[in-house]
Amino acid sequence: MERENRQVLPVKEIIRLCMNRNVSFFAYRLPGERSVTIGIQTSKHQYPVDLTDEKQLPGFVFTPFAKTETCTGRFIRADILLSDLSAEHFSLTKLEEMIPLFLPESSSVIGRDTAEPKESYLQTIGRLVSRIQATDLRKVVYARQIESSACNKELYYGVFKVLLERFPDAFVSLVHLSGEETWMGASPELLLSNIPGKGFKTIALAGTKPVEKKTWGKKEIEEQEMVRLYVERILADQQITAIQSERYTRTAGNVSHLCTSFSSETALPFSRLSEVVSALHPTPAVCGLPKEEALQLILESEPFDRRYYAGYLGPVSSEGVRLFVNLRCFRLDAAKTVVYVGGGITQDSDPVEEWNETCLKAQRLLDIITNRSK
Predict the structure, then answer these.
(1) What residues does the Chorismate-utilising enzyme C-terminal domain cover (predicted)?
(2) Which residues make Cβ contacts (< 8 Å) with residue 205, sequence separation at least 6?
């Protein structure tokens, strides 16, 4: 009965207010939990990401796949932090008085922004497979973007709400950068969790199959094994002793992934987090192996800039850090909605199967966006 009587935040009204005032803010729900946390930055200052500062105010890290001149990563400072714990004393009227109004600016420079046609995609995958077979490359994660109709910002909460309902075990997020762009997603992949008193954890996640398919194929098992060995080596290089789980399957909407967890009862000091995160990111699950060669090939081959897709994001405070890979995500603006999906290309990849896998990954998000954008 306590849960039924407990007050909860009016998330819809808060998101609408933040969007109308054009302030930078974040809203998220951790995997397996029910409550949404919202953080609002009341200034237009662009704070850099700094995981070494244990005393920084609570906030949210939002980092791109690869830094560019127009996309360097942001720390959204939570000048106002709201959760169900504060709902009892919450006042929307007071919040309206605390949040400034920032006038709309010209949109940020997105850079290359091209949705690749199927025939071009199939040809590119064929070339990548040939290159992998002829060189030391073992895997390249090639992504594509799928465009959908624009979503009125008044409907953003509706989309966010459905993500919360459809993906109970994902990290569901909504991030708005003032004067720039808005992103939503439901990530199945933890990059790093580091909570004093609770310990350290990371996950090696890779391989995708439809939920209804019972068995894993050779390609998917080998793909996940590459990521597992990579994470194992990084942790060893960083002198982090972690217990490794057996391989297991995790369901994320209409698809499943293979996972291996690495955990330690001892949390890392904040002074080490930047180094460890830099070593892990980007993992072979979103980039490839060897990392540098795969990264360069991605930047040369993909006809768009990934920006925050396949970067990492999550809440940061003196009480701990939880970072997730920005997957199953989409970017919203006044002109269109862009869904980002990718697949791991190996020597055994079939271009048509890879295309179908990206369609499968995108379908549930596209259904949500289409139904809630009307």
Answers:
(1) 118-361
(2) 188, 189, 190, 224, 227, 250, 257, 258, 259, 285
Residue 344 belongs to a domain: yes
Question: What's the domain range around 162?
Answer: 2-91+113-372
For 160, half-sphere exposure in the C-beta direction (CA atoms, 13 angstrom radius) is 28
Band the pLDDT of 151: cuts 50, 70, 90.
confident
Helix (H, G, I), strand (E, B) or coil at 282: coil
pLDDT band at 4 (very low <50, low <70, confident <90, very high): very low
Is residue 249 situated within a structural domain?
Answer: yes
State residue 158's pLDDT score: 93
Residues 56 and 240: their CA atoms lie apart, in Å, by 25
Structural domain includes residue 98: no
Looking at 26-30, 150-154, 167-171, 323-327, which range is the least confident one? 150-154
How many residues are given for the chain? 374
Q: What is the DSSP string of 166-210?
A: H-TTSEEEEEE-TTS-EEEEEE--EEEEEETTTEEEEEEEEEEEE
- Phi first, then psi, for residue 169 (nearest 5°) are -105, 10
Compute the distance between CA of residue 337 and CA of residue 145 in angstroms, rounded to an integer: 10
Closest among 208, 180, 233, 153 to 363, alpha carbons compared: 208
pTM of the model: 0.93
Contact (CB, 8 A) for 174 and 367: no
- In single-letter form, the type of residue at position 294 comes to A
Q: In CATH, what number is assigned to the domain containing residue 213?
A: 3.60.120.10
One-letter amino acid of 188: P
Cα gap 139→132, rounded to integer Å:
7
Rg (CA), the chain: 20
Question: What sign has the CA pseudo-torsion 361, 118, 204, 221?
Answer: positive
Q: State the Cα–Cα distance between residues 260 and 224, nearest whole angstrom.
A: 9
- In three-state form (DSSP H/G/I as H, E/B as E, the rest C), the secondary structure along 22-77 is CCCEEEEECCCCCCCEEEECCCCCCECCCCCCCCCCCEEEEECCCCECCECCEEEE
